[in-house]
Fold:
Amino acid sequence: MALAAADAERGAVLAGLGGCLACHTADSGQPGAGGHRIETPYGTFVGSNITPDPLHGLGTWSRADFDRAMRKGKSPAGRAYWPAFPWPSFSELTDEDVDDLWAWVQSLEPSARPDEPHELERGYRGRLKAGLWRTFVHRQREVLPDDESWSEEVRRGAYLVNTLGHCGGCHSPRTRLGREDATRRLAGGDTPPYRAPNLTPHADGLATWTDDDWSSFLDMGMLPDGDFTGRGMARVVNEGTSLLTTEDREAMAAYLRQLTPHPDAEPE
Amino acid sequence: MRALVVLLPLLAVPAQAGDIDPETAVAYRQASFGALAKHMKTTGMIAKGQVPHTGDLETHAVALNMLAKQLPGWFPEGTGPEASEKTAALPAAWSDREGLEKAAKALEDASAKLIELSKQEPIDLTAVKAQVGQVGRSCGGCHDTFKKDDDH
Structure:
């Protein structure tokens, strides 16, 4: 594909894999208008309105504002976002992907739905605390577990899984301070009321999954026994992985299959 | 009184279903869902071009479609979690009977489209694959509401 102006359609596929609308849309609400509630040990986060409405959405944002929010975790006014918005993963996004996501955001139907405040537990209220988390816990940048021995394919898969897909947001255990535990990446996470499975090639995880199993899952949501995934993951497949190219799905599988095997993390 | 006389034979039906041992009913239900899953698995393998058995597609699609019509019957009264530790079905499968029937109808309709696609010549595997995804969504969607979480 020739390098063209930002591509909203490509952005829509990226947004599907990124699961943007899963959090930024209420149940049966207008796409991107916000309102989905995410229950966490720190309280309830409410997804914001990301439609291009000038008052309640991102209508007045510039490309630079969007970039800063996505890759640096800061609002146009310079306030830090809580990592419920997975900017630590998005910090490694390529310029092209940010461009296309921005084009996609601008293509959404504007909604005048006002944002609702997060309902955080005592001790986590206030943007200042989000700033402290950003400074001291996040340590500025999410470093990808890179390896010189990785093939181009595995490298691409790591980008799709860790950066764009931020699969670890649900599938990685977290440290006490809410940071994804990089030492046990994708070894399963708690996403109350459910558990996100261990994706590593360990007996507790997906050691038995073949390339065909991965391909059928990312393509159609089919599990090796012929059953199908449901809940949030069905949406990730429908709106994201199923729309990727076959090569990209193979890259995700190649990366996931070479992960360090970890046993299931003990729930905190 | 007359209404009662008319209704009595209907009331007798669940009583007959109750004659089956709950564990046996659960085993049959699970085996039936296993059959559905096997038909999905084979359909998926064909749709992805892993095997050349496109001639089998219609058979699997018809089986899915016919089983979908039987599905609500696999949940007789008294075979829920209160009667069996082995069942993964949630009480909602009995308290929201209408919802269960609607979910089964979704599978029936999605598999009906799969039958149509499987009759086409030449067969369009890309369309078949997309439709298998649709059928699968009806499985996953129903499990979200009526099946205990099983890690996916």
